[in-house]
Amino acid sequence: MQRTWLWIVTFLYITGGVGCGYHFSPGGEHIDSAVKTVYVAAFVNQTDEANLGNYMRSAFINQFRKGSRFTLASHMQKADALLTGTVRRSSVSHVAYTATDVAKENKAYLTIDITFKKTADNEIIWSNRNFSGNEAYTVETDPNATETNRKNALLKLADDMAARAYRNIMSGF
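^ thats the sequence. predicted structure below, dont judge the formating
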């Protein structure tokens, strides 16, 4: 008898007959099915840090390429949706020091604005102002090595922020 109940509960659980009904749907089902192509515009860079706009645009292009919901358009005129962004702030701070008060780890911070909208009527599908992230990197005794670490941290940060924003776009958050 106990085994029968176990099979029934297992069956109901697997088929969805039991549960709260909530599920995470990263497939973009809430986005109009007519939106099939996306153009990722160049990000405006309002910081003194060169290339941040390029890093962010490349990171978003990579996210849309990884996903299967949209196709990337080569021109804005050929797209059903447009992703635009602005890099608002970039900063670095020391987060760890040696025993002699010399920085051994820094953290890079970025804040961006992002908008994902339909091109036909400019209806905003998803938008986030002050979307931010940070990434730590090691400070080396060689300034060139530190600069390489900083650049790699900014690239990783751009990738991480684009992945997070893409998940939010696709899930409707």
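The chain has one domain: 35-171.
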